[in-house]
Amino acid sequence: MVVARGSVLCMYISAHQRAQAHHYLVTYILYMEDMYTPSQPSQPLASTVQNGMMQPPLHHSSKPLRIFLVILVVILVGWGLFVLLNQKAVTYDDQGNPITTADAGTLVSGFPEALLAFEPNAAISESFRIDYLNKNQSLPFARYTSAKTYQENIDGFKTLLQEQAWAVTKQGSILETPVTNFYAVKEKEQLNITLTQNEDSTVTVQIAYSLTN
Fold this sequence. Notes:
Structural class: alpha+beta
Shape: elongated
Low-confidence stretches: 1-18, 21-26, 28-33, 39-47
Mean pLDDT: 78
Largest sheet: 8 strands, antiparallel
Distance between the termini: 101 Å
Strand content: 25-35%
Number of helices: 3
Radius of gyration: 38 Å
Number of strands: 10
């Protein structure tokens, strides 16, 4: 029985030692990989003996820091791309006033969508906004090709301006061909609508809106 117990004990110690040796080997390989990556200078190895077993050298790995920096860079790059892809193009005129241009097919911010109520599904071909900083004034603009006739546009905008309580200072007229204009005001707002009949009978609509804050 003593011999049997001794054999079992020897087998246990041997298995335990093999496990520790395997753990040390794996740890040591990971340590060496970390030590000799391009971002880390080589350092002398200092092994210690603990509980009769050689332990891997102590080393304060900078992997967590590198992982954090990589994640931070990915976040910053992603945010930069998001801002770049979603921002509107901004240029400046000779006086330094910013001109914001909307993407094709969209209205620039600040343009009242109610002004398109006569033809709400119109395909916007151009839209931009000029901000006159010294006057505290914003001028959004939109252009589109109408699916309606010249006469229909004149009648439609007459009705729209009346329904939206604009004070019309100049009415468009069929007698003005191929270009006619509407001028209207409302408190701090001003409006200029230009209708142009093209050679192919299509109508180009240009709406310049002005708001003084």
